[in-house]
From TrEMBL:
Belongs to the proton-activated chloride channel family. It catalyses: chloride(in) = chloride(out). Keywords: Cell membrane, Chloride, Chloride channel, Ion channel, Ion transport, Membrane, Transmembrane, Transmembrane helix, Transport. This is Proton-activated chloride channel. The gene is PACC1. It is a multi-pass membrane protein. It comes from Chrysemys picta bellii (Western painted turtle). GO terms for cellular component: cell surface; chloride channel complex; plasma membrane. It is found in: Cell membrane. InterPro entries: TMEM206. It comes from the Eukaryota. One of its GO terms (molecular function) is pH-gated chloride channel activity.
Length: 352
């Protein structure tokens, strides 16, 4: 009788254990799948394998800590995404600003010889007495100042109408300028004005880039009109020796054209006239020389490099995609941990 009761109790216990095992098998399979997914994602470690033997309070504290850590990571990823978006906006804005505001680039080219510039003088009633080429900044003493002397320069006279008024006739004396900057070549001109009804006496002049272009021009009148419209004019006064030191500036425009501009430095020395002359007599002295052998070249350069911008944007977008991927995996991991915790709680409650 006793053995029958023991065998009946043993059979009932076996049936209950089998029933509990049937409920635990899908839970354990789900946990194995979750562990494999966590290992492949390599974002955060899985739950401790011994957590099943730990107390419920320890398991809860570990789960809570991991949830808090994953939320912090999620906020970090979102912050990185915001920074990346700002960098994209700032990069595109800077690129557009650099396109609108190119940087001026200045370079210098050394030359042994210049193209002989053209010197257009407007003497009016003044007479050209002499024109000579000298070298190494040396001008010999004047012989018979105020009297006609040697004219060694290549000169040409031309008349044309004023390009601004189209009414006034202008009389220009074109003189070939210096070329050899290494030998410090200069051109020395002397003018004489016998009478003048003006309070101040001066001679106008302008410089243009090439005397040879003037000689080879089929229409010299239009050539001089264009020069007067394009170049600035200056003056030198009577009773002084005006020393003009020229420098050349070439500027490249946005449309590809190249413009030429002369810069000059002038020094004025008083002429001590020791001749016996009438009070209205006036002498003019002017010297033209190159300042240095360097041609200044100016052009606008766009500093924005499209390849650098493309590379930077690619890196930023890569960071965006990685941050989004990390955020998505973190959210999945949080959901997975929550489901696992609920399954284990249900299993433990069922066993209890």
């Amino acid at each position: 009788m006793l053995s029958q009761e023991i065998s009946a109790s043993y059979q009932e216990l076996s049936e209950e254990v089998e029933h509990v095992a049937e409920h635990l098998e899908p839970v354990e399979e789900g946990e194995m799948d979750d562990d494999q997914e966590d290992t492949s994602s390599a974002i955060l470690p899985v739950l401790d394998s011994e957590s099943g033997t730990s107390s419920p309070s320890v398991r809860f504290s570990k789960t809570c800590l991991k949830n808090v850590f994953s939320v912090i990571l999620l906020f970090i990823y979102l912050l990185l995404m915001a920074v990346a978006v700002f960098l994209v906006y700032q990069t595109i804005t800077d690129f557009r600003e650099k396109l609108k505001h190119p940087v001026m680039s200045v370079s210098y080219k050394e030359v042994p010889l210049y193209d002989a510039p053209g010197i257009a003088l407007y003497p009016g009633k003044a007479q050209l007495l002499s024109c000579k080429h000298h070298y190494y900044d040396h001008i010999p003493p004047l012989i018979n100042p105020g009297q006609p002397g040697e004219i060694e320069c290549i000169t040409q006279r031309i008349n044309y109408t004023d390009p601004f008024t189209n009414q006034t006739m202008k009389h220009a004396l074109i003189v070939q300028g210096p070329r050899d900057v290494k030998k410090r070549e200069l051109v020395f001109l002397q003018f004489h004005l016998n009478e003048t009804d003006q309070d101040f006496s001066a001679i106008n002049y302008l410089l243009f880039s090439s005397f040879q272009d003037f000689l080879s021009s089929p229409d010299k009148t239009e050539f001089m009109k264009d020069c007067e419209s394009s170049y600035s004019s200056w003056k030198f006064s009577g009773g002084f020796r005006t020393w003009v030191k020229m420098s050349l500036v070439k500027t490249k425009e946005e449309d590809g054209r190249e413009t030429v501009e002369f810069k000059q430095e002038t020094s004025v020395v008083n002429y001590i006239d020791q001749r016996h002359k009438p009070a209205s007599d006036q002498l003019f002295f002017v010297v033209f020389e190159w300042k240095d052998p360097f041609i200044q070249k100016v052009q606008d350069i766009v500093t924005a490099n499209p390849w650098n911008m493309i590379a930077l944007l690619c890196g930023i977008f890569l960071a965006l995609f990685k941050a989004a991927d990390f955020a998505k995996l973190s959210v999945k991991w949080m959901i997975k941990i929550r489901k696992r915790h609920l399954k284990r709680s249900q299993a433990m409650n069922h066993i209890s």
